[in-house]
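Q: What does the assembly look like in three dimensions?
Context provided by user:
Components: two
Sequences:
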Amino acid sequence: MTERITAQMVSGSTLRDVNAAFASLNRSSQELASGKSILQPSDNPYGAGRAIGLQSAIDGLSSYKGSVQDGISWENTATSALSSIGSVVQRVRELTLQSVSGVNNEADLENLAGEVEQLTEAVKQDANVQYAGRYVLSGTLTETAPYEAGAEDAYKGNEGAISRAIGPGATVQINQSAGELLGSGPESEDGKLLDVLRTIATHMREGTAEAKESLGGGDLEKLDANYSTLLQMQAHTGSVTDQLRLAESRIEGVKDTATQMLSNVQDANVAQVSIEYASQKAGYEAALRAGASIVQMSLLEFLK
Amino acid sequence: MPIPTLQGLQTALSGLMAGQDALDVTGHNIANANTPGYSRQTALLQTSNPLSIAALSPVDGKGAQLGTGVGVETITRIRSSFLDAQFRNESSSLEGAATLAEALSQVQSALNEPSSSGMSAQLSAFWTSWSNLANSPTSAAAREAVVSAGKQLAGTLKSLGAQVEAVSSEASQRYATITGSGGEVASDAEQIGKLNTQIKIATEAGQPPNDLLDRRDSLIDNLSKLAQVSVTENKDGTVNVSFGGAAEPLVEGSTVHWPQELSASSGGQLGQLLSLTSPEGPLAGYQEALNQVAAQLSESVNALQPSTPFFTGTTAASIAVTATPEQIQTGPEGEPGANSIALSVAALRGGEADQSYGAFVMKVGGDVQSATSAQENGAAMLNAVEERRQSVSGVSVDEEMTHLVAFQRGYEASARVLTAMDSMLETLIEHTGRVGL
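A: Here is the predicted structure of the complete assembly.
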């Protein structure tokens, strides 16, 4: 038996077809407008979960990048302070050699001692270098200057470590303590830079043969030992900077890959969606046209 | 026995009357072509009882039966109760799926994922604020930023929890409205009971109450959206309707048994509303997932903040930031520049809390996806059954027009027969016995 077709069936199915065509047209238009293929988690639950994870990972990489750049600036600050201290040490070495040469009178020695004392203050000043308002050579006591200007030579900082995150689970220590190099002055007798500089100045003023002997011997040796500590610290700063720069370029690479992956997961394929949109539009128009002509027809038109 | 002289007039009259009745039925069908739930009706025509003529043949005297015309036996509606049962079954499934999809979509919209303002973005911003704090532990602005990112995160968790709760209480409310006194179930059941009484009277009088039956079927169709129904027909024309697996039938003749206890397996809207709000239902599961995110977030961050906890509360509803910017610890006590703790907190990115939240989003997305496709399938099934039902019971205007023409022509032909009879009788009465006049 042939199925009976009634006007209600025709209008009902026409309406459904038109609605379905319009719904898919609307979907494509939303994808094109937003540029995303996942508009809601239900469009692709697994993809949505992945997109969320990737987005957070990309944010994380951006913050590692920020840390690394901050670390590089920190290291640059420390490097310039250390090289400035290095030139002071060189100058003191020259002055020391000059003081033991034998042609100096008392006034000359006094002048030399005065210059060494000034340079000592300059070293303390250099050690008090700041980056973004923080003392970089003061351990974790970044709000405390490592040294006070004047006679007091005690190191005020600590040996605490400050690190920067350079990747998931990877950190690198960026700070060094000034106390390691400069020590706490003659009272501590630690043989470190300030102690040595103060001793040199004292020996210059004394001007005795004994003093000259230690100036030319033990003092110079101690100065050289401190200089090599300084060189070690400079080398360390350089290697940390290199490490940070490497990390920066690696982070860039990983971030590019992750961004690409995120785009693959959640971005709409514009070319494909545009073509789909065009064909859906044609389908929608056809559904409307067919519906409009079939719904108004009936036998009534022809019975006169 | 000869044929009665006026028998032909009677036969023609029966044709006229039957034609008129059939035209009336066609008119009723056309008038109701767009009435929802209307089943087309048809006048069943039947030949009337023949007249026995004992000895008709002049040769052997054999008799015969002479037809006396036509009559309308009854007017019936054309409807398949088998398709009705199928329709109601599909209607229950569709409404159940639609109710589920609607509720879950509400939760999904509340999530606002994936986007740059959803909770995943806020979690990410929270970890970034810790990483910025690790870069400058002594900065008051960085501390402030950590607290404000934390507060925003806690606020979002709280409002997500509240929105899931709102969907659940809305479902309970809807259930109460539909099942309450004066609700849809009670009013449909009462009308079915009354129709049963009227139908019984008409049936006993031998008059098929077609339009009353249609109205009763429409009401039962409507009940099938709310929960599964099954219908038992009684001999007196009444029906018993059992509803959603309730202990007693909802309607038994003219008696209504309501309210009754329904369950999550009752089907339809009501069954789905009960299953949504049950402790094993999806909404309770979502609430639990959000609580887990809150607990993991709070515990993992607090574990790294020994002196003053950063978060208080371990559920979505109770989580809040209580630490002040000054109380945040970035490193060991008394070392303002130390950042070891801040680094550890920032390293929690992508950890338990992030993963639980990602899994939660995937769960909601998957649930909505399967509920929506169940709804689409249900709609397709229901449409298929409805088409078949329409194909059987729907009014086709073309068909009725054809009937209209046929019955009209039949009426005209019967009238012509009447005229022929009349002219025959005229010959007999006016012109007979007047030879030579």
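Follow-up: Helices of chain A lie at 7-34, 45-99, 106-127, 178-182, 193-206, 209-266, 270-295.
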